[in-house]
Design goal:
- By secondary structure, the protein is α/β, with parallel strands linked by helices.
- It is built from eleven helices and 18 strands.
- Helix content is about 30%, strand content about 25%.
- The protein has a nine-stranded mixed beta sheet with strand order 11-10-9-8-14-6-15-18-17, sandwiched between helices. Strands 2-1-3-4-5 form a five-stranded mixed beta sheet, sandwiched between helices.
């Protein structure tokens, strides 16, 4: 096998912990000696041993003289909850380390590689770097900007409608696409909607397929704190917190009522009477929320795109044609006057899930 094949194996291991490592990155590691995999592992969750620890522990004495493949640069800093991986690697006797991507954390960012080279260990980097970088977009966004990485998810008909004129939207997509939406929730720190979605659908915003033990935090953008006290999104679910994003003029008496139910009210700067989404992302990042999935209506979709906070989109296209000027379009707000002002989506991929088509891309 080649370096690329071993690194691909390390990346597959890293993905096993998707949704469970935040605010840490997903990392996989493989130890190879004389063409044999003698140890492998991945980072399971924040505060537990890193991928290198698991792989080297599995390899034992066979790590001496071996090559370690790791999807992210080994850490070298203290203080933190686990010992530096560079110390473990040096003690293991590994002769060579292959790194997919450097850690963007300013406390590491090339230092881990320099420490290993100074110890006489050969280090090669950049193997499947783009794959490794994309794997940890949420971590990279949070560690470099202090803000979470935002994905906009839209379920729409082929003609771009997300609801009828009366507001009916259940269900535009089929069961397999809806199950995929729940898997997206399960791997995200927080799900965000606007108050319009809460008033129309009364969603719980919980995970109902796969690993139901992990429900994301829930965020409702609500400038007037108009959310009903009986709304299902306010019900406690495991360790999930419901954040209500509002502005300064929202009533304090209502805030106290909502806080008595366990909600956390975040007051942001006002942008034309609306929640400043960039300020909201800054506050969420300060609470170690590294990824946000927007599952709202047309207005919150438009606001997020206008604010420039969206990093990627997942569009679920149902093979239906709804029609009608008064049906609800996927993106509200005012239309740009020129095509040149349209938001361009790059690196687009298309796949079929059940009867629906999934289009994913990056902004």
């Amino acid at each position: 096998m080649t370096d690329v094949e071993y690194m691909r194996r390390a990346l597959r291991l890293a993905v096993r912990a998707r949704g469970r490592t935040s605010p840490n990155p997903m990392v996989g590691a493989v130890v190879v000696r004389e063409g044999r995999v003698v140890g492998e592992g991945y980072h399971h969750r924040a505060g537990t041993p890193h991928a290198e620890h698991h792989a080297l522990h599995a390899a034992g004495p066979e790590a001496k003289g071996a090559t370690l493949y790791v999807s992210l640069e080994p850490c070298c800093h203290v203080p933190k909850r686990t010992s530096p991986c560079t110390d473990l690697i040096r003690a293991s006797g590994v002769a060579r380390v292959v790194v997919a991507a450097r850690d963007p954390n300013p406390r590491v960012r090339g230092r881990g590689i320099r420490v290993l080279r100074k110890a006489g260990i050969a280090v090669d980097e950049g193997v499947l770097e783009s794959d490794a970088t994309r794997l940890n977009l949420a971590y990279r966004s949070w560690i470099t900007t202090g803000r979470p990485y935002v994905t906009l998810k839209i379920a729409e008909t082929l003609d771009g409608k997300i609801a009828t004129a009366t507001g009916e939207s259940r269900w535009i997509t089929g069961p397999r696409a809806r199950a995929l939406a729940h898997r997206l929730r399960a791997r995200t720190d927080a799900v965000m909607v606007g108050i319009g979605t809460v008033l129309a659908d009364d969603p719980e915003l919980t995970v109902r397929v796969g690993d139901r033990r992990r429900s994301p935090h829930r965020i409702v953008v609500d400038e007037r704190l108009a959310i009903p006290l009986h709304a299902r999104v306010l019900r406690p679910v495991g360790g999930s917190v419901t954040y209500l994003a509002t502005i300064d003029r929202a009533p304090r008496t209502q805030q106290r009522r909502l806080e008595a139910l366990g909600a956390v009210v975040l007051r942001t700067r006002s942008q034309n009477g609306l929640v400043d989404l960039d300020d909201l992302m800054r506050q969420l990042g300060g609470r170690q929320i590294t990824s946000v999935l927007i599952e709202g209506g047309s207005e919150i979709n438009a606001s997020a795109l206008r604010a420039g906070i969206v990093g990627s989109v997942v569009v679920m296209l149902s093979p239906k044609l709804l029609g009608g000027k008064n049906a609800v379009g996927a993106i509200g707000g005012a239309s740009p006057r020129r095509l040149a002002e349209a938001v361009n989506v790059r690196d687009v991929s298309v796949r079929r899930v059940g009867s629906d088509i999934i289009v994913e891309g990056y902004l």
